[in-house]
Amino acid sequence: MTLATFGQPALIAMAGLGLTYNTLVVLGGVAAVGCGAGVVGSLTLLRKRPLVGDAAAHATLVGVAGAFLATGRRDLPTLLAGAAVSAVAGLLVLVLLRRFTRTREDAATAIVIGVSFGLGLALLGGITARGIPGGGGLERFLLGQTAALTARDAALLAVISLLTIVIVTAVLKELLLVAFDPAFAAATGWPVGLLDAGLMALIAVMVVIGLPAAGAVLVTALVVIPPVAARQWTDRAGSMLVLAGLFGLTAAVAGVAVSSLRSGLATGPLVVLAAAAICLASVVIAPRRGWLARRLRSRIRGGDDQP
Amino acid sequence: MNPGQQPLVEFHDVTVAYGRRPVLWNIDLAIAEPCLFGVIGPNGAGKSTLLKAALGLVPVVGGFVRFCGRPRRQVQGRVGYVPQRETVDWDFPVNVMDVVLMGTYGRLGWLRWPGRRERAVAAECLERVGLADLADRQIGRLSGGQQQRVFLARALAQEADIYLLDEPMAGVDVRSQEQIFGVLAALRDAGRLVIVVHHDLRTAAEWFDQVALIDRRLVAAGPTAEVLTADNIQKTYAGGIELLEQLGQAVAERGRTE
What we know:
The structure holds 2 protein chains of 2 kinds.
Chain A: H1 3-6, H2 8-16, H3 21-46, H4 51-71, H5 76-101, H6 105-129, H7 140-143, H8 151-170, H9 172-180, H10 182-187, H11 192-218, H12 220-233, H13 237-259, H14 268-285, H15 291-301
Helix pairs in contact in A: 3-8, 3-11, 3-12, 3-13, 4-5, 4-6, 4-11, 5-6, 5-11, 8-11, 11-12, 11-14, 12-13, 12-14, 13-14
Chain B: E1 9-18, E2 21-31, E3 36-40, H1 47-55, E4 60-67, E5 79-82, H2 96-101, H3 105-108, H4 116-128, H5 144-156, E6 162-166, H6 174-189, E7 193-198, H7 201-207, E8 210-215, E9 217-223, H8 224-227, H9 230-236, H10 241-257
Parallel strand pairs in B: 3-7, 3-8, 5-6, 6-7
Antiparallel strand pairs in B: 1-2, 1-4, 8-9
């Protein structure tokens, strides 16, 4: 998604709407992030681990605050690098909890979400309370705020998203095999543990770069809701990934665009609302799996006893 | 395929435990010739675990498993596997052909997608299990028997020499059972070893050339007629309520077939 896609007339029209060049670049970056989140999120949903992304997302705040405290810098790459470290650390704790304490996956996820998020909030609160200079803008990672993004930041987000999509595409056959039947995959020689670890790393990367758009609390909506919506429309994994990417892109762009109409608005809630609207529409009107289609089918069968 | 005259499959003193609870004790079992081999025993006897141990899906705490005298990793592509049907989500967004193609992935390796040859193999495997006309159907819209045959077709697409099947007849209609058994018998006749975990004593007597009776330990193994005696069955199913009923039927069945 580059500027060229919009074309010159569109550019002028959008400038007329009060959208600056910077806003357009940010929209492009956010579009790529939404797309990547939908694609990677589809795989975690199919692997029956939709909450792994949530755990990673909530763990990012510790890293954001930690990176700021350690370096004193507040540029996006530094803060996101910190977020990535703590997201991966959170997932490691999740895996260790499950392996060594025999805690169930959902309980372990809840522990990681709660503890890491609490720790992150405490650190952010401390930074604000002490009035550490430059620490003021960090809360924007809580609910998302793209107003402060520079064109460079947006380009970085776009490049990482596209790289993630390329990696997923390259090992899609293996990831889908493990998601569908891990026992068969292991029995036929595929390194299931390694592929699972790779998928977890990819989802961690996606929620980290989704932070500016949706924030730690709500970024999970970008990795869970678009895949759920996409599943309604298709019975093939390939088209589900493409659709989830498109839905994620649409939700992210819609949320950020609407929030840019008024300054100071958090983008996360708007992104989530846009994603939820797409999902609701899909659940109702999708052919065959949708509520309407099922309703119609049972109506047609109605008078008949035979299915 | 077997130059050194090693057994096709050999379990040597295999012990498996989940946590601290042992599920299989000191299993010694060697299968030398291609045949239809049944692994029989009550619920919780460790039958599936035996297959999983052979495939490296559960850790073996003692002993080892060899295929043609070699560890599993060296013969990966030659061992086909049919897991229990309930272990996967049949609402997964794939169609019948997609699943059967998964059998070819082992030979393909990383980064390569199934091509014309793999599709031809998969189509032929679907033909053999009688599902050629359902290749494009989403797997959730199949009957239990059809789903089981999809799994069998996927294993066929592995083009293996040894097949391990975990309860392929469970929850399957009679027509599918006969079709599956026909495919397995054809594999045996083509010189493959087919090992089937099975829970039904009645059909075991007529289907398998050889059987192993297992109840956490190996009770007996060998030619079906010699192993499925009232005494061995009594030992395997000791104390089980299903025993009396099954025992009577199995003995009656054997009386009829002999």
